[in-house]
Amino acid sequence: MTSDARTQVARGLQGPALVYTALVFFGAACAVVYVSGGEGESGVRAAIRLTARTTVLLLLVIFPASAMLRRWPGAATRWIVRNRRYLGLSLAVSHGYHALFIGWLYASGTAGDIPAATVYGGGLGFAFLAAMAATSNDASQRALGANWRRLHLAGIYWVWIVYVASYVPQAATNPFAALIGLGLIGTLALRHVPISTASADAA
Ligand code: HEM
């Protein structure tokens, strides 16, 4: 691929196009795991697990976006910060599928005994994600003023907490959970460890 073509691809994959891509790509991936997972309840549960994972991958990019740009200014980190709103909406799309398949479990009477902590903790996570997606536009940002930042900060931290609570306890027995757990803690460190300390350590 020529560098012109690469630039075109990079330009194309930004802004609202990212969200439409997420809608189609995650939808297709869910259909594939639903069918290969044996359809019915096992297929639905496979799609729930898949969407939990696609969401957390996006979270690992969005949560430390500004901190990464400050530490490692470059084309990739600038692209992430420039497209953070659309990456956030793509995350909401991914978790919209999570919600859709959970609704499917309840509707088919196969949800079983989902722990109360998942129902209420995860339910609050869905409420935050819905509010964040609905306000991810300039007009809402202007209208809400400082509350916009409070909402988005509280929401992203809550979703981060739900993921830590889901994956960290399984880390000793599940390598994927361990990897994601490390990633989640790493993103928190990126946001909170001052850059001067990091460069002093490196020196
Ligand atoms: C922001 C909200 C939520 C987050 C971040 C979240 C995250 C997760 C995670 C990390 C997993 C494990 C995936 C894996 O095995 O790798 C999972 C699975 C699951 N979630 Fe969610 N969840 C949320 C909301 C909910 C809610 C509200 C419910 C139900 C009322 C729910 C029901 C389930 C079920 C049933 C599974 C297990 C599927 C299976 O393995 O059979 N989730 N979720």
Structure in words:
With 203 residues, this protein is an all-alpha fold. It has one domain (12-202). The protein is built from eleven helices and no strands. The protein has helices at residues 3-12, 16-36, 40-62, 65-71, 75-82, 84-107, 116-134, 138-144, 146-167, 175-192, 195-202. Helix 2 (16-36) runs antiparallel to helix 3 and helix 3 runs antiparallel to helix 6 (84-107). The longest helix has 24 residues, at 84-107. It is globular and about 50 Å long.
Element pattern in H and E: HHHHHHHHHHH
Which percent band covers the strand fraction? under 5%
Helical segment tally?
11
Q: List all distinct small molecules, including ions and cofactors, that are bound in this structure.
A: protoporphyrin IX containing FE
Protein structure class: mainly alpha
Principal-axis shape equals globular
**Radius of gyration from CA coordinates:** 18 Å
Helix content: over 70%
Low-pLDDT ranges: 198-203
Number of domains: 1
- Say how many strands there are: 0
Give a short account of the largest sheet: none
Average pLDDT: 92
N- to C-terminal separation?
39 Å
Quick overview of this protein structure:
82% of the residues lie in helices and 0% in strands. It has 203 residues and is mostly helical.
Features of the shown structure:
single chain, 203 residues, mainly alpha, 0% strand, disordered C terminus, binds protoporphyrin IX containing FE
Topology:
Blueprint: H1 3-12, H2 16-36, H3 40-62, H4 65-71, H5 75-82, H6 84-107, H7 116-134, H8 138-144, H9 146-167, H10 175-192, H11 195-202
Helix pairs in contact: 2-3, 2-6, 3-6, 3-10, 4-5, 6-7, 7-9, 8-9, 9-10
The chain binds protoporphyrin IX containing FE.
Protoporphyrin IX containing FE is lined by residues 45, 48-49, 52-53, 98, 102, 114, 118-119, 122-123, 125-126, 159, 162-163, 166-167.
